[in-house]
Design brief:
By secondary structure, the chain is mainly α. 78% of the residues lie in helices and 0% in strands. The chain has a single domain (27-125), classed as Ferritin, CATH 1.20.1260.10. It contains 5 helices and no strands. α3 (42-71) packs antiparallel against α4 (75-103).
């Protein structure tokens, strides 16, 4: 429900600025992370992979919202982005806490480090474009 509330906030803000939501586009970053997920090792391992993937996506979202909140001139959007940053940071921490709780801190941390290394390679090879922040 929280994510749905965020989506409604986005729609409301767009409407207040006489803007429309654009078409959803392929997210190369997310797709690359999903390709990295280990498959075929059972449902429990699939859960660990999803938790780590989601944690990384949420962490990067929090970073982007933080940067936007610090550098945007519009005070309304500054506050708005800050709220999103706080929420995304909480989601990121929750996903990592769940991974640690159900799979052990050592295993979760090791897989997190593997994802971070892989992500660095993905980002180094992605084309820089103005329509994305990662």
């Amino acid at each position: 429900t929280e994510e749905w509330g965020h989506f409604r906030m986005v729609l409301s803000e767009l409407k207040s600025r006489n803007l429309e939501l654009g078409k959803q586009r392929k997210d190369e970053y997310v797709n690359a992370l999903m390709q990295f997920q280990q498959k075929g090792n059972g449902r429990e391992n699939a859960l660990l992979e999803r938790l780590i993937t989601c944690a990384l996506i949420e962490a990067r979202s929090a970073e982007r919202f933080r940067l936007l909140s610090l550098h945007i001139a519009d005070d309304t959007l500054k506050t708005w982005y800050h709220k999103f940053m706080v929420a995304e940071a909480e989601h990121y921490k929750l996903f990592l806490e769940l991974a640690s709780k159900y799979f052990g801190k050592e295993r979760a941390w090791a897989r997190w480090q593997e994802y971070l290394k892989y992500e660095a390679e993905v980002l180094a090879n992605m084309e820089v474009r103005g329509d994305r922040m990662h």
